[in-house]
Amino acid sequence: MSVVFDRPSALTDTLMHYCPGCTHGIVHRLVAEAIDELGILGRAIGIAPVGCSVFAYNYFNCDMIEAAHGRAPAVATGVKRARPDCIVFTYQGDGDLAAIGTAETVHSATRGENITIIFINNCIYGMTGGQMAPTTLPGQVTTTSPYGRSPKIQGNPIRMCEMLATLDGVAYAERVSIDTPANVRRAKKAILKAFRNQIEEKGFSIVEVLSTCPTNWGLSPVEALTWLRDNMIPYYPLGVYKDIDKKEGDMK
Amino acid sequence: MPKVLMKGNEAIAEAAINAGCLHYFGYPITPQTEISEYLAKRLPKVGGVLIQAESEIAAINMVLGASAAGVRAMTSSSSPGISLKSEGISYLVGCDLPAVIVNVQRGGPGLGGIQPSQADYYQATKAYGHGDMRLIVLAPSTVQEMATLTGEAFDLADIYRTPVIILADGAIGQMMEPVDFSERKPREIPPKDWACTGHGGTRKRNIINSLMLDPEALEKSVRERFERYKKIEETEVKYERFMTDDADIICVAFGIASRICKSAVTAAREKGIKAGLLRPITLWPFPKAAIAEAANTAKAFLSVELSMGQMVDDVKLACECRRPVEFFGRTGGVLPSPAEVTAKIEAIAAQL
Known about the structure:
The complex is a heterodimer.
Chain A: H1 24-38, E1 44-48, H2 56-59, E2 63-66, H3 72-82, E3 87-93, H4 94-100, H5 102-111, E4 116-121, E5 124-125, E6 131-132, H6 160-164, E7 170-177, H7 181-199, E8 204-210, H8 214-217, H9 221-235, E9 239-243
Parallel strand pairs in A: 1-2, 1-3, 3-4, 4-8, 7-8
Antiparallel strand pairs in A: 5-6, 7-9
Chain B: E1 4-7, H1 8-18, E2 23-26, H2 33-42, E3 49-52, H3 56-68, E4 73-77, H4 79-94, E5 99-105, H5 121-126, E6 136-138, H6 143-160, E7 163-169, H7 170-174, E8 176-179, E9 207-208, H8 215-235, E10 239-242, E11 249-252, H9 255-270, E12 275-280, E13 282-284, H10 288-294, E14 300-305, H11 311-318, E15 325-329, H12 338-351
Parallel strand pairs in B: 2-3, 2-4, 4-5, 5-7, 6-7, 11-12, 11-14, 14-15
Antiparallel strand pairs in B: 1-8, 6-13, 10-12
């Protein structure tokens, strides 16, 4: 009997700590499949963030570094400049990448660091228990916006792909989602491209993945996928925001 | 090798390249910017990398990344910038990563001034980051020592897998003196088999991490690190004595203050006062034993600092209250004059 489905060799045989219905597991698998398919496991170095995916260093089967909150792109810069032949990626959540680490994100992007960033946007701080994130939607209830996020009081959410796409150093910025099997396949394609770009020394590549947090959204896993579709995608439209391989008219 | 006339900051930069440091990450701040300017010229010519980071925080985390990848890396700054680096310094310690961090001190607190200071002594020796931690702190007093101690800092960092601080000041950073870069013999460095270099499918993957949620495991790792600190305290203390053998009054001073004290001690001797100087070269580990031994014969100590008095606490602890420990200092960027220090020595002598 032939094996038709197996764990990618870029994932360790470790039980993940993620909540039921959380989509981190799917994205971990997509990253691992991309590493396997490109044959880069032996020269991959991953940078884990602070947040729900803080234990990513236990799950990816390559050399791993745990960064301080938000500093993964700076750490990745140091690693890549020291080891240009290695394939360096960060895996970061919205608080990590778009709040405390915004400067590191923007400047590694504008320098055109030849690294790959996987950005999980689930509109909430998961690990600390459901606080407002930089990407929390207007009106969204969190423990620190209990009456719903008011742009007048808590300010507006931030759209990272749109902002990063304006920078010359960015080779590729795409926003994907994992709410349907078809979108998971698109996400996989984007992640593969973001790693291939680095192999081909094209520069900074980021894939923003719209993800769910059933636990802190207070929804069932299936309801959470629907909520993502109905609320997140309209605010954070899917698509390619920058691709140096394509002409401007071909975008999105 | 012939001697070269250089600024203290430039001597640090050249010594770093001589020590094989080809990765520098920093952010401009007076009075240390010559370090990055010098390296910006030199590093590209020797296959190195200099990145002017978006912030001090990013710079120290780039150092962390490069060090984790197994290469020698450094950053430099001055007092306010060093405060920003404290997060990364703590993570370097927690990850057991070597790094060299230069602080060419200026006056504080806050934005303070840009003139020489030693007011970051507490911060450097007690609290450069959160958590149970120590750092090796080296205090050069000449441009030659800026070079020698920089080479030494890289070796110590690799041997003990710890960040090492060069605690200089604006005066030594800016002054020019002759330097001989061949003065120091490099030490033997253990292989960096812990580094993240890509496992190539040939070894177990390496994880560099400071997160330990299990209290027992965290305590164990901190205790292991403190065993290393104990070894450093036993073997790496460095200090200089100047006319201390028969001294009644021993000045304790480091860096630029020690040079002022040498003049003051000489002047006091001319006035018939048996004065001497003990100059810590390692501020941590502090030369406790040397001061305790000196307390057997000296009648009083005088800590001279470019601050309101910080190292004076360590001098008191080291001589265990067996002798009076006086303090003299100027702060905010004001340098004490040798005459002021001599007058203080005379005042102490009058009370003995």
